[in-house]
Design goal:
200 residues, mainly alpha, 2 domains, 7 helices, rod-shaped
Length: 200
């Protein structure tokens, strides 16, 4: 629906430029600005999530056009508002591309992390039942690994929750953090990446 709204605004401008015989009138300028603002607002929800810098640029440009309207620069308002509507579509396209990229990153991370966590859990369980720890693993290092692992599991749970609620950027950021911390914990416990596998 958002894409259709932006496309509608761009199409409206094309018709407007043919309809307005005199771009120096206030009415056409106000209509142009309104349509540009509607296109930008239709873009806002996705753009603020995935391309916030580009969204901020749109807002700044919109504010500048509003100032020109207040100054009576109606011809410039019509021209620049038309450009803003087209730019809004580009920003929305960029946001959707970023969203798809994040979902792909998540898919890759979510395939490997469960196997890493399972490997760590299995090693912790086995060592906890052992009478004696391996020579290269001190009791202090083992406790450090267990504490780290508890934090990793908690963070992974939050990452999953973020993904389920559509907060893909935060989910991927947390998943990358989980992967890095899990890798470090595996190192403490002497687990190789190969031995972890990709089991869920």
């Amino acid at each position: 629906m958002k894409v259709k709204a932006v496309l509608w605004a761009v199409t409206l401008f094309a018709g407007m430029m043919m309809f307005v015989a005199c771009a120096g009138q206030k009415g056409p300028a106000e209509l142009a600005l309104k349509s540009a603002e509607e296109a930008i607002n239709a873009t806002r929800a996705e753009a603020e999530k995935y391309v916030p810098d580009q969204m901020a640029g749109l807002d700044s440009a919109l504010a500048a056009v509003k100032e020109k309207l207040a100054k009576g620069e109606y011809k410039a308002v019509v021209t620049e508002a038309q450009s803003l509507a087209a730019q809004a579509k580009k920003v929305l396209d960029a946001a959707m591309a970023k969203k798809d990229e994040l979902k792909k990153n998540w898919e890759e991370l979510s395939q490997g992390i469960p196997g890493m966590l399972a490997a760590i859990q299995g090693k912790v369980d086995r060592l906890s039942k052992s009478i004696k720890l391996p020579a290269d693993l001190s009791a202090e290092k083992f406790e450090q690994a267990k504490a780290s692992f508890a934090g990793v599991k908690e963070e992974w749970t939050k990452a999953l929750e973020n993904f389920k609620t559509g907060n893909f950027a935060e989910a991927v950021s947390m998943a990358n953090s989980v992967k890095a911390k899990a890798t470090e914990t595996m190192g403490l416990l002497g687990i190789t990446t190969a031995s972890a596998g990709t089991k869920t």
